[in-house]
Amino acid sequence: MKHISELQGILSHFLNWNKARVNCLTQILQALLHVRTVNLTQVAAAFQTTTTEDSCYRRVRRFFTCFSFDLSAIVPIILNLFPLNGKWLLILDRTNWKWGKTPINILMLSIAYKGIGIPIFWRVLDLEGNSATQDRIDILERVIEAFTVDRILAFTADREFVGKEWFEFLCAQKIPFIIRVKGCYLAEEISDKCKIRLKTFCKGLGRKQILNRCVTLWGMTLYISVEKKKSAKEAMIIVSNVSFQNALELYRKRWAIETMFGCFKTRGFHMEDTHITDPDKIEKLLFVIAIAFCWSYRVGDIEAEEKVIPVKTHGRPDKSRFRKGLDKLRHVIFRKVSRWEFRKLLQVFTSSNKGAYAL
User: Taking Cα atoms as reference points, which of 126, 222, 141, 133 lies closest to residue 180?
Assistant: First the structure.
């Protein structure tokens, strides 16, 4: 219970909620770290309280059903957890699955950080399949409103996030983007007005690259970069509205968000175990998962800086930074380690500029 009260005190600095709501979030958060699943029955069973399990379950359901709050409250928490100085590489992607016949479709924007995505804004879509242009615009407008375009090094996304209206918005807002496109799209070279398919640029390349070649696509002057690897089934074609020298290298960092989704799911909190299908409730659930994930990763990040993670014979680390941090949190919280050890873990919420806590 002492751990709960101290964590509650930290979270109350970031959240303008009443004490009971912050306490409920704190209980859900520590329970999620304990059971590593978003199944609400198991979460309620792991509450550190003398209240009955049924009462805890009703309390959890009320939190997701009756309580409304601004999801942007995650922003100050993240900015205090991570040293995100300078410009950011933003990554947009979707993850989806089904509960029964009901599709659950999440559009997520993250910041690339040391090979993983840090969740910052998201929207649960009430449809199956790709997102609408307006959904993407709404998310990026939240970024512009909160941080301005000057914080964006580049915005990157896969080839499902394309379209004339979408690209026009990005260009109008002066958001530097790097987005993969399909080879079947017709474009014009600047030197002539003959339209050709983008995949034409891939012919005869072998393993060479074409960098920063100007084309006109949907009436916009863009730069095309092409990479064709020997083992790949098709060439990777990306377009950008800025002449990046390392466009392909930046685009490859898009995989960081896939790593993050893996931590949300099977490698961490088994997000797909939820029986919740209402979009608003899932967005609130993501808020809790995001805090648990970011806290775990930041602790593991600092631990890795203090002591190098062993590398196995296959060349990969013995543990990921996320898993190292998650195991550390679980050990300190649930094995009743001293309050001093737990307080050191809480310091990461306010010590991002220092980069580490004292061991």
Answer: 222
Of how many residues is the chain composed? 359
Token readout for 348 is 């990461």
pLDDT one-digit tens code per residue, 101-136: 899 999 999 999 999 999 999 999 988 888 999 999
Number of other residues whose CB lies within 10 A of the CB of residue 264: 23
pLDDT at 29: 95
Q: Residue 311 gets which letter from DSSP? A: B
**Phi and psi torsions of 335, nearest 5°:** -100, 10
Kindly calculate the radius of gyration of the chain based on its CA atoms and give it in whole angstroms.
Answer: 22
Written as one letter, the residue type at 280 is D
pTM for this structure? 0.91
Q: How many helices (H) and strands (E) does the chain have?
A: 12, 10
Strand ranges in the chain using DSSP code E only, listed in sequence order? 88-99, 102-113, 116-125, 152-157, 177-180, 186-189, 195-197, 209-217, 220-227, 236-240
Sign of the torsion angle spanned by Cα atoms 340, 345, 349, 355:
positive
Q: What share of the chain is helix, strand, coil (3-state, %, to 5)?
A: 45, 20, 35
DSSP string, 236-271: EEEEESS--TTHHHHHHTTHHHHHHHHHHTTTTT-G
Q: Give the C-alpha separation, 16 to 8, whole Å.
A: 12
- Ramachandran quadrant class, 336 (left: phi over 0; alpha: psi -120 to 50; beta: rest): left
d(CA 300, CA 309): 10
b/e 304-338 (16+ beta carbons within 10 angstroms → b): beeeeeeeeeeeeeebbbbbbbbebbeebbeeeee
Average pLDDT of the chain, as a whole number:
88
Identity of residue 158: D
